[in-house]
Amino acid sequence: MHKSHLPISDNTNDDGDRQVLQTTGFKNCVTRLLEAGIQFQPNIDVAEEIFLHIKYLKGVVKMPPLRIHEATESIFRNLIAFEQCSIATSHCITSYVFLMSSLLSSLHDAEILHHKNIIKYDLIGGRSGSDSGIHEDVAALFKSMWDGVVLKDCCFSKLCKEVNNYPRSWFDWRRLIAIVKVKCRGYAIVLPSKYFATPWTTMSLIAAVMILVFTAMQTYYTTSTYYRQY
Predict the structure, then answer these.
(1) Considering the entire predicted model, what is its pTM?
(2) What is the band of 75 on the pLDDT scale with cuts at 50, 70, 90?
């Protein structure tokens, strides 16, 4: 079972740069990484069972879909125990759990990955996949599984290093476009609930916009008249 989850070509860390990664993975959760310009996409080129086949290229993290069902925790815990007890086995499953726990800081992070078809749900406890309680359970699941676990080496250290360093590159146009998209989505969600919730807030917003427009027009005509005189 352990071998069936491993990628056919183990190039998750092909530069040989393996390092101990006890309580870190990505420095930021999914929400913060999106705000920093990192994009997440499902890697549909591989089967769901090979969820370790994570790729990163130019600000885009591609992750195979992971299907969460009632036996997921049991399977992961047994695979982690197998890695902890075996000397010759790499800690790829343990590395994946560390990686996911660093991404899922809250139920909102799990909701984002679910929306992007990276995390999929079977019915759990009779609740639908849209229930926020499931997102919260999944976020807590990965954090609970690495309690008391020792990570010998991280199979994703190179990937984590590249992703963590990406927000430092301000001159990448892909990153700037991704940041603008995230900001626009955030404003599209906040504006209706905050400024169009009642007629009074809607009228106040319209009045503020009209004042801003009139002020800009007045400034323009005043400036143009001044330059015409001289």
Answers:
(1) 0.69
(2) very high
